[in-house]
Amino acid sequence: MNALRLLIVDDEPLIRRGIRKGLANLEGVEIVGDCANGAEAIQTILSAELDLVLLDVQMPDCDGLEVIRQVGAERMPLVIFATAHDEYAVSAFEMNAVDYLLKPFDEARLRAAIARARERHAAKNREAVTQQLESLLRSATKAAPERFVIRNGQRYEFVPADTVDWVESANNYVQLHCGPKTHLMSETLTRLEKRLDPAKFLRVHRGRIVNVSRILAVHSLMNGVFELELRNGLRITTGRQFRDAVQSLLRK
């Protein structure tokens, strides 16, 4: 029996090491390599001979689903997704019969997922794999997240989207400001903007997104710049290039 050629993709070094350790003595699996981000994953998938990718869903810049979009569902090996407790992602996976692991997962669950992948690989149904991934990509764009999953060490916190007052960019992370609390999430502001409901969240600056329901008043400054007064008393200055977006609020 030929070994499954596996690629590990996760932006957390501890998780990558844990997967390697969990599969170290498992016969029939050859770990080809591991990638810390989506860009590395795309390059490796397109250049290496792979049978299986263990693919993290939430990664900054280029997440797991974007990896599939860039590579193309028809060129993807088998995929096992790894995700935090995200109800929407899990629902999409189950609806499309795609295998996944919920973080944090133990060695037994990891090995069970590999065993299922081996059965799927033996079936050699390439068309079914492509159809499942294409269907997943279509369904994954239909709804904005109702909550965010924030990882804090080995603990995962759930933050409802409607509790977020505003969002601030922090390089490859974003800070979710929820009243007196701030949560750091591994995602860029641009990627998060694409996931949010545009009727509820508005990008007003290259580094800020605001929950529209939290805006109490809009103050016009100079040269197309505005100051948004939030219900908690905070004032946020908008970017000049987002003038039209802010003015659209005033026309509603």
Structure description:
A hairpin with a 4-residue loop joins strand 14 and strand 15 (235-237). This protein has helices at 13-22, 38-47, 64-71, 87-95, 107-123, 126-139, 189-195, 243-250, and strands spanning 4-9, 29-35, 52-56, 78-83, 100-102, 147-152, 155-160, 166-170, 173-178, 181-185, 201-205, 208-211, 215-220, 226-230, 235-237. 33% of the residues lie in helices and 31% in strands. The protein folds into 2 domains: 4-139, Rossmann fold (3-Layer(aba) Sandwich), CATH 3.40.50.2300; 160-250, LytTr DNA-binding domain (OB fold (Dihydrolipoamide Acetyltransferase, E2P), Beta Barrel). The strands form 4 sheets. The chain has a 5-stranded parallel beta sheet with strand order 2-1-3-4-5, with helices on both faces. Strands 10-9-8-12-11 form a 5-stranded antiparallel beta sheet. By secondary structure, the chain is of the alpha/beta class.
